[in-house]
Amino acid sequence: MCPSLAIGDFSRATHLSVKTLRHCHRIGLLEPTDVDQDTGHRRYTTEQIPTAQIIRRLRTLEMPLDEIQAVIAAPDVAARNDLIAAHLS
């Protein structure tokens, strides 16, 4: 199994704020691998870091979260590139 990180550690590893990670979870953009039912504490795996980095990079390009969601869900690289190019133009 892949190592897991508490939300604060994941935040530091990805440079996404805890507030942003919670929002991404609420909208289904980046869901934690585990949420403790008693405390609500979120845990992420190290395998999720690349996705979080993509989110952070696209946010620096001022891409709205719904468009980022479409990029992440795109079926292939060409479709992803088309979505990013459309945003940039």
Give a structural overview.
The chain has 89 residues and is mainly alpha-helical. The chain contains five helices and three strands. The chain has a three-stranded antiparallel β-sheet. It is elongated and about 45 Å long. The termini are far apart. The mean pLDDT is 93.
Describe the structure concisely for a colleague.
The protein is mainly alpha-helical. It has five helices and three strands, in the order βααββααα.
List keywords for this structure.
single chain; 89 residues; mainly alpha
Outline: elongated
What is the average per-residue confidence, as pLDDT, rounded to a whole number?
Answer: 93
Q: How far is the first residue's CA from the last residue's CA?
A: 41 Å
Largest sheet report: 3 strands, antiparallel
- Largest sheet, order of strands side by side? 1-3-2
| Contiguous helical run count | 5
Q: Structural class of the helix and strand makeup?
A: mainly alpha
Helix content: 55-70%
Q: What secondary-structure arrangement, pairings included, does this model have?
A:
Elements (H helix, E strand, L loop, with lengths): L3 E3 H8 L3 H9 L7 E2 L6 E4 L3 H12 L4 H9 L3 H12 L1
Antiparallel strand pairs: 1-3, 2-3
Helix pairs in contact: 4-5
